[in-house]
TrEMBL record:
This is Beta-glucosidase. It comes from the Eukaryota. The keyword Thylakoid does not apply. GO terms for molecular function: beta-glucosidase activity. Pfam families: Glyco_hydro_1 (PF00232). Belongs to the glycosyl hydrolase 1 family. GO terms for biological process: carbohydrate metabolic process. The lineage of its organism: Eukaryota, Viridiplantae, Streptophyta, Embryophyta, Tracheophyta. Keywords: Glycosidase, Hydrolase. It comes from Nyssa sinensis. Transmembrane segments: none annotated.
Amino acid sequence: MTEKIRDGSNGDVAVDQQNRYKEDVAIMKEIGMDAYRFSISWSKILPNGKLSGGKNQAGIDYYNNLLKELQDKGLEPFVTLFHWDLPQALEDEYGGFLSPKIVVHFLEYADFCFKTFGDRVKNWITVNEPWAYCYGGYVTGALAPGRCSVPSKHVGGVLGWGRYSCWQQLSFSNGEDLANNETFCLVNDQIHAHARGRRQPRHIGGDSGREPYTVAHNQLLAHAAVVKLYNQNYKASQKGKIGITNVTNWMIPYSESKKDHDAAQRAIDFMFGWFMDPLTTGDYPQNMRNLVGSRLPQFTAEQSAMVKGSFDFIGLNYYTARYVVDAPNTSTDNPSYITDPQIEFRRVDERDNPSILAACVDKHRIKYFYDHLSLVQKAIKDGVKVKGYFAWSLLDNFEWSEGYTVRFGINYINYKDGLKRHPKLSSIWFKMLLKST
């Protein structure tokens, strides 16, 4: 569905790490990194999603080769099992994460990974950013599998907020526009692009008022089942740890009013709490129960007990903060995850992407990492048990619906010259930082 990709590209080759992994590991070593976080593609090793459908030995060999190279160079692998690349066969058969059947097949896939790679992998992540998978795949339809209620309704609802914008307009708490720093949210840009007529989204049905909650529920159950399997069958012998990586923005009340403070809490509950509360309490936030009602799935007592505490560690992908205002009139006759929280966000202006030269002299990225690492250091001093920090990302790469039009890497990829890697200023900064610590 390349019509969903901003530049009409695809990820078939991307940055070709499959053939250049030794070069990329050498880059990590040169910078001074001691760990590398990457994902195993479910489809790459089990093309049909099931062991009964056959294995792809070439894919398995690639991950074995990568793990050996990391081991030889002294880098610790942190491996994610699911980063949104569901085998198409399972989507076609029963709708993927819309069905509870996914738990059995995700468990089978994870079991295969533990058996095959677990002697070298001591840190496992079950799912990366389950919120983003639900939101992009089932609320806006901007990401695979591209399901949503009729997009025009959502766009109208979002843009109908006037000077406000949707979930994905981002700004620092000090008001700095992240769009100028290459880290504005992909989904929001796509929604506005559709509204401006740049391209019309292709969607394949869906219900943005129900399906995101169903998919989130099944992701949590699949995660918990895999953690239970690892703890029972592998932890003692492999001596590893397992967790999940969530994503959130911090939500700031736009005013000092109680209504805006309550709205900010609802925003947190509908993003961070949606997954963190079940992991720590066994159920969804009360705000979600109150506002979503019967559309929000229920955990059985057994499921609640299995999900609660199902982690050795929590990964947190954090990008920015947003201002939130109370919006009690955003609910509609056609419920949607967008309107359920009854909140709105202050809008920031979009700006053009920087030039190639500016992409390599990326002082804004250095400031971004410096500010975040400073606060991580403060959190550690305050007693938070922070075990590590991963910067996104090592290389420019294929960025989902944005294709190759945005560059998040600390190393520049020249897509017009054989995918040559070039260090950006931020890469040099990281090297100096790591040498000084």
